[in-house]
Amino acid sequence: MEPYSLTATQAVAKFKDGSLTVENYAKSLLSRIDQRDSAVKGWVYLDRDYVIEQARALDRIPHANRGPLHGVGVAVKDVIYTKDMPTQFNSPIYEGDAPKVDAASITILRQAGALILGKTTTTEFASTLRGGPTCNPHDLKRTPGGSSSGSGAVVGDLQAPIALGTQTGGSTIRPASFNGIYALKPTWNSISREGQKMYSLILDTIGFFARSVEDLELLVDVFALEDDESPPQEPFSVKRAKFAVLKSPMWSQAGPGTVAAMEVGAKLLRDHGAEVEEIELPAEFDKMQEWHETVMHSDGRPTFLPEYQVAKDKLQAFLVGHVENEKRLTRAEQLKAFDGIAALRPRIDEIAGKYTAIITPSVRDVAPLGLDSTGSAVFNSMWTGLHTPVVNIPGFKGEDGMPIGLSLVAPRYRDRHLLAASKAVGDIWEQKGGWKRTV
Amino acid sequence: MEPYSLTATQAVAKFKDGSLTVENYAKSLLSRIDQRDSAVKGWVYLDRDYVIEQARALDRIPHANRGPLHGVGVAVKDVIYTKDMPTQFNSPIYEGDAPKVDAASITILRQAGALILGKTTTTEFASTLRGGPTCNPHDLKRTPGGSSSGSGAVVGDLQAPIALGTQTGGSTIRPASFNGIYALKPTWNSISREGQKMYSLILDTIGFFARSVEDLELLVDVFALEDDESPPQEPFSVKRAKFAVLKSPMWSQAGPGTVAAMEVGAKLLRDHGAEVEEIELPAEFDKMQEWHETVMHSDGRPTFLPEYQVAKDKLQAFLVGHVENEKRLTRAEQLKAFDGIAALRPRIDEIAGKYTAIITPSVRDVAPLGLDSTGSAVFNSMWTGLHTPVVNIPGFKGEDGMPIGLSLVAPRYRDRHLLAASKAVGDIWEQKGGWKRTV
């Protein structure tokens, strides 16, 4: 097994028992990147010599002083500040910009010993659907999703075990599904977003990509994320657990891949002794999609005003439209949407709290052909607005053998419980869902 | 009249008619600062040569290309990034730190032609009550308030016409009252907080200090802040306007200065033909103070985790307490507070929407003696949580001739209407409220 294909948890074990140095691990990752980057194009910045230098410095740290993420390679979406690398937001306005400041998430990762590898592609300001140049590693003719395009692609392609993304609509969960990997969108504001470029304050959430739930747990440990009660010590068993299947108000947009995954996923859990109940949300949730869009567009108005004033011509028309309030959204409409979503948060906590998790689509279907658009967030934006934690679990197969995942959703601040359940569910779906990693 | 004593609006007029150059204006401000800074101590960073250099560059811009804030001196609270000056948060962890990045607010101000003078004192991360070294210009033995200590003091002391602050509890409105000046805490998220150090996402709001309402209007113009309908063109008249007087659930904490100001303020408006009605809030608002505190402390937990991990020993005990969840707040309590406040926002909009503005205390009383504590935010934190715009209007006199102000509050996104009313109210209170500026 090449070191580059290790999960973070596996790599950490090898650093601990001395069977792998961070330098050799880094070299393996770089060789994978050298081999694949010209096809996948997931990175916007990566300094090979600097990565090796950092790896060597980590190797010199005595075992007793090593952090929980010692040596783990992390790819960072290029909307998150890194003090030693450029941060450019895929915007010509910020070309070459490299302020010496670390985002809160980066400070915490470095403090835990992570090896920050480089910066990954994003759609402009993580705020548009316009894709490129990154390709889906499972089929280069398809989008890797967005806006965390590079982060999803490089983890799916074994070029990094962990990546940071963000989500305002579906920018973490969608690329996770398209690239056949796990992702966690944690409870809103449970992890500091300081130093992460803003789109909508009330929606933007950091996101983590990984190839195992253990790796996501390693991350939430480092970020000190705690539920009110810790999940039980013994491994979660699907047997006698109770899941809700929610087709969501957007179900008419689900393609055959997602329809099949929902059926297979539910059946597999039932076969393993779980109770799986189909639920529908009360009618007031039907507004969520519209409200989410209203909040996002309204919030984009002050957010992109600086760039608009400095260089309107270098800003995508979609974002110019936010600043100019192209949709003619009134303050009254904006507040109705903002307050309407707020009122539904305790409602969804109550509904989701009756189950281990809600199972719901992550995407319309497999990654669409073409790189121009990063796909649709219709199945994600409700959960972003509701602030609930969401885990994408891979395992299903759609058109042309492409991966497809499903979302598991829990009430706010039940992230640890959700991860514990995701591990058991993921084991089943990855083994029997029909999709096998081939890259 | 010395140029340093001009309001922004007055200075702009002089730049326009050619009777004052930005360079001479800057020199006048610097002479005022030279004369007073050793007493007031409001600045943490100010490079005199650089200010002059910037002023000269502004003078070279042809009239046709000048922005609406051309040449106006702006002081910036040191929790807001400026690419050409250090940003240190009054934290030993960030001593000497100077990342080359401008906050959104700074980009917009520069684009409008403002002359960024320097950085002003703040309590640690704008998140504690521990004061010093800044003194109140009206009595050096008293606090200027906080956390925007320097911004309030330098505007009150004629060292700058405009300053940027922030408010999470009462960090803008309180120092405005203590220093005898105007301030606007705009509707939450109506102006981008990008590049402003975070404490609590849902509470933190930028704040503006000035010595006239016209100056605040000049600023909200630049920040493109719009209500659903523009206020009427003709000047607002107090006559036949309808105000609510709200003593607030914290009234028992009001001192004699505030009690008198509320009486005098209401009487003056009645004398000018306004209808002034005393109101009380429904009982559910009694929880606001507790909920605000719960949200602030809970949000401080992820916010200060990076600093805690990097250098816990260099972090104030109060903030260490946030990260360690000293108050043992549960997620359930946190969410109850977060959702509870959210549910009250449309309620307060409805109540406040019946009036031109709600008149309510800005502070317990005049600035307390001593520099150790920056005073109490009990009369402000409710409005911060409710996201409403608040204007502090000076004009009243308390103990030892110290200034005292009152707050005018309007529904969310009625900032322009609130400012229009504040101008008329301020004219009356400044003329007849009993306090006259002497510095």
From TrEMBL, chains A, B:
Superkingdom of the source species: Eukaryota
One Pfam family of this chain: Amidase
Amidase domain span: 27-419
SUPFAM superfamilies to which the protein is assigned, alphabetical: Amidase signature (AS) enzymes (SSF75304)
Ranges for region Disordered: 127-151
Record's protein name: Amidase
Native species: Pseudomassariella vexata
